[in-house]
Every structure is written in structure tokens, then in C-alpha cells.
Amino acid sequence: MHPFAYTRAFDTRDALDAARRGGRYLAGGTTLVDLMREGVERPDTLVDISNLPLDDIRATERGGLRIGALVTMAQAAAHPKVRTLYPVISQALELSASAQLRNMATIGGNIMQRTRCTYFRDVTAACNKRDLGSGCAARDGFNRSHALLGTSRTCVATHPSDVAVAFAALDASVHLLGPDDERVLGFADFLLPPGTTPQREQALLPGELITAVEIPALPRPLESGYLKVRDRQSYEFALTSAAVALHVRGGIIREAKVAAGGVGTVPWRLPAVEDHLIGERPSGALWEAAANKAADGARPLAHNTFKVELLKRTVERQLRTVGGHA
């Protein structure tokens, strides 16, 4: 492991000052420390932010929910308001990792985690995320687990977070604190597809700190849930996943929010699926027809063509689960 300095911040100003001098934030450490061991990440300074007052969950004045960046995955999944109002979040968190990891990893760290692409984590392989211009070994290598939506010539790696898929579906926003000001980014603008800059994965400015993720007030009643399809039932990353939230009133779908994981370079909203649902009456035929649009725009690789059909079936199954008429 590359030598590094360690400092602990006891308030946000300390953290921002240390980051301004080149420090990297450390909370649960479940991703960053692994990458440091593997030689992928080589920060000179770690800034421990685990003592900052960013670990609360509270209702907002407008009826939404604000989850502090240092709330652990386990705490968020078990919180009564999360479980009652947004079961899609609880389910995504509980399917994300082992109990030990959920007790350590934070919400802010989870959405910041980097890809599990084996070529990214192999420092001998070509990877534009690690070394821009070196190439993407996954494109011509074994790419069964890789993305088919949002890819570019520079990168085809999937985003690994489950709860990020739920946040994307719910139109969440990310609250940021920087050296000069606070700002709020919509979740769709926070995580960046690779394009020509795959090394830049989030829209963070230098030294910015995630303080919270906020879910807006959504119409009620709202039924939601998360489905994850993987190679094994024990701890594993998604081949495909679907986060679904439906607002049905008077027998008509008034709002539909659908996002997919395991198939995109970022959590992937499915507007074609949503548009097909809104204004319709729930039915088995509707779920099937809408899900058939889930893979619109997909660009499969040599070994992940199966994900096209698997994505459609995953979305259809979760629409049936959340919306009924199975």
C-alpha cells in the first residue's frame, strides 16, 4: 500500500480545509481502503469524516425525506420512515451487501463507490478510468457483467450501487458542501456516464463534501420495491435490477418511476417504460408491454447480450410485484 497521512476532522470546516490541501474523505472505508490495498487508489492524505454531524434521517418541510451522508446502510434500511414511505430504498440496501458491510458503509460512500470491473481493479490491465488513454480492456475482454446502456468507446463498466438505482428512480437530490458554498444536484446530474472522461464519475467540485441525499415529496399512495437478479443469492453484484415506484389513483397509474441497475454505466432511468405506464390501468398485459421497452438503446457486448432479455423480464416481474395483477 502506498504510504499516506491520516487526519481526523471534527467539523465540516476542518474537513473542507484538509480536502483543499489534497486530502481524500474517508467514512466507512469499505471501498476506498480496498482500492488502496490493490494499488488502484493512492491518496497522499486521508481525512476521516466519521465524526461529522451528518448521521441523521429527518422529514423535510415539504414532505420529503433527508438522509445524512454518514448514516450507515444498516441504519437507513431499518429506519421506520424509510421502510414505511420508501420500501424500495430499504430493499435495495438490504440486498446490497453483507450485514457486516451494511453496518460500516455509509450512504454517501455507497453512491460514491467505484466500479467492480475486474479490469479497473487489475493495475496491469488497460483502463481509461485509471489511466485515461490507455484503452478499455473490457471491450474486447470478458464482459459478461458489463454495461449495455450509457457506454462509450472509453468505458463499459457498470455502476455497482443498488441504492443509487432507488435514488435515481425517486428523483433524489444530493446535497453538497464546498469550500465556498452549498449546492444541490439532482441525482441524474450527480453520477456521470463515461463519455470521453470516464475518470470523472461524479459531478463533484474539488474538495466538495456530500452532506445528505434528499428524496422529494411524492404523491400518495405510493407503492415501491426493488428487485435484484444475480448469479447467487448470497452477497453478489447485480446482473440486472429494477427499482419501481407507482402512484395509482382511481384505478389509473398517475405516476410511474422506473430505473435499472446492473446494465448501465450509471443507474439508468427508463422513461420509455414510464411513459407507457402513465394514464393506463394496471394489468398483466400492460406490465409486459411496458417492460419490452426497458432495453431501448441497448448496445450489448460479446458476452452480455443475455442482459437485454433479462432486463426486460426483471422490469416486468417488478412491475407485477409492485403494481399487482401478477
Description:
This protein has three domains: about 1-50, Uridine Diphospho-n-acetylenolpyruvylglucosamine Reductase, domain 2, CATH 3.30.43.10; about 55-110 and about 170-215, 2-Layer Sandwich (Uridine Diphospho-n-acetylenolpyruvylglucosamine Reductase, domain 3), CATH 3.30.465.10; about 225-325, Enolase-like, domain 1, CATH 3.30.390. The chain is globular, with a radius of gyration of 20 Å. About 30% of the residues lie in helices and about 20% in strands. It has 14 helices and twelve strands. A hairpin with a 2-residue loop joins strand 10 (about 240-250) and strand 11. Helix 5 packs antiparallel against helix 10 (about 165-170) and helix 13 (about 285-290) packs antiparallel against helix 14. About 45% of the residues are buried. The strands form three sheets. It has a five-stranded antiparallel sheet with strand order 4-5-8-6-7. Strands 9-10-11-12 form a four-stranded antiparallel sheet, sandwiched between helices. A three-stranded parallel sheet has the order 1-3-2, covered by helices on one side. By secondary structure, it is of the alpha+beta class. It starts with a strand and ends with a helix. The mean pLDDT is about 95.
